[in-house]
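Subject: Sanity check before I submit

Could someone independently write out the structure tokens for this chain? I want to compare against mine line by line before I put it in a report. The sequence has 667 residues.
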Amino acid sequence: MQSAEGSTSQASLIQVLAHPDDDLYFINPDLQRALEAGHRVTSVYLTAAEADGRNIDTRDPDRLDSPPDYEGYAEARQHGLRAAYAAMVTGKRDSEWARDVVSFSTGVMAERSTLLAAPHVQLFFFGLRMVDAQHGFAAEVPTARLATLWTEQATAQLTLISAESPLRRPQEITRDGLLRSLVELLHHTRPAQFWTMDPDPWHTAWDDKRGPASSDHQDHTATAQFALAALEQYIQQGGTPPLVDHCVGYGNKLWPSNLTEHAWDEKKRVIEVYTSADGHDCRHRYCGDRQLSDGSDIRRYGWSTRTRYEGGTDWLHLQADGRLAAYAVLGGRVAVWTESAPGSGSWGGPAFLPGVGLGPALSVAADRDGGVHLVGLRRTPGPGGQVDVEVVRMWRQAHTGATTPWESLGNPNERSNDWRRCREAGVPEAVVDPSGRLHVFLRNFGSGISARRETGEGWGAWEDLGGRGMQDCLSAVLKSTGRIQMFAANRTGAVHWFQEDVYGPYKLQDGVTSADPDAWRPVGGLTPLQIGRNRMAVFYREEESGEVMWVRQRPDGRWNERVERLGGHGGTGRIAALRQSTDRQDAVVLARRNGRNRLSTAVLAAQGREQTPEWTDHDVLTARPPALALDHAGRVVLAVLGTDSRLRVMRQHAPDAAAGFGPSTVV
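---
Independent answer below. Compare away.
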């Protein structure tokens, strides 16, 4: 492959997408934050996205009277995308681009667009036709699209050349040719962050013969499969495992919105540049994607930016030897960073534990002796596009760091003997009971909750705990009384499961609080925290505002009627919360990813008067929710994963919530 012109010392990000606008709808504002940080951004689009070839507002009743122009519409989408990127990077939609042809060693050719004012920003267009059949090709060419190319039902897929492309002729691209070209591109960019679409989207309906009606576009799903396969080959060939995220597509519209009005307005302004609805005087023949025109609001899936596998805040732990260890999944492998000595401020890593194929989110459950259970989802691709998804567990011993082999816990949907149901398993959440046995919870195919627990005789069967319409972001906690509670958000509020007796069955309480439902609108994961002998608090983000909220239990176990606001407007991802009790004060330390994707912290009194804490912003660009833990001296340590996939650690000056954090250390 030809060398890219220009470079930047910032982190490298690559995103592999289906259509030129997937990133604008499903990844922004995260993409804009990466561009603002000066990261090297490589955006790859697999299809020509020519649709029906009519660049006319879909609300126009006469649009079908116009003949299709597939090459022209593909050009309009590319032109609009370049204008949107130019506006995000330079503030000028008309900033110039260079367009050239990249030839891979596979023989595959792709168009590359390079932003001249910022040559570390590049767009690659492979131009695979969305559907061959609508273009009347010769009978010997199989009807194909990206999904059938992935499943090998089609042997090759033809490309479409956009109207003003420097490419001169269409080509046939095979499955292997596309995969190896993507691998080559990964070696060229050496990404620290890797974004693609959802490989296992939720269903909206089910037919026993036809299978699922997907919540997402089949091109999105196939793109994610190609991206994962290419990434695995890249790592096997010596590439460094990056931080991976899968962005939810059309399925966003099924769940509460997690972007503020301001964030959506920012996102919408970029989309309107792409659709040529920003009011500029367009004199270019192919101005932008006018099918949506100024109607991006009607596509409710743009109101959120969420990942399919939302990470938790339980990934920083104090080991039995007094050292802290941090865990994350990079490129399907568990990475571990460890302090060199208790409180030293010096860290080593990442070291990689055995095993591959893990999803991006990992639950880290501490045992009684300082070891941890690592619980996640493992995806194993099979023939014909089939993929096996199972819950797996590894135990890491406290004193030696030795690990057990990954153990499969199966899948609560496996009784159906249908792999398509199993692939919709949610992110597992794990907790250890007083006897040292592990309990695992996850969202099942029916959008309820399933659980499995260890017993004296081994693993028990999967239990159906009920619930419906659950968001895929569970949180479990072991109370000091020895009882486990598990919290989850659904479409309209929150529910939790609890044990009346230690080791007893789980009971469902539908609603954490009896407050007015309009005041209780969680989006994403809940964070439970014990704040008294038998009292819990729950922290969460409010729908649309992103503001941090909390609700507390009374000493009698009932929940407060009132939900309290803690400020922190904007941002996505879970809230990290840690109680720090000293002789001087009883406080809760909070950390979150703010609306600029930076880190923010606050201190809150665990007991007593209501207050709105003061949030402190830190100039640390974060890729995931932060984690909090107490070190060997009782000081709070905060850890985040940066967009360069490197660990950043901050430590309190003293074991006192009022002491504040020192500077961040980059590992």
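---
OP: Matches mine. For the report I'm noting this point. The two ends are 32 Å apart (CA to CA).
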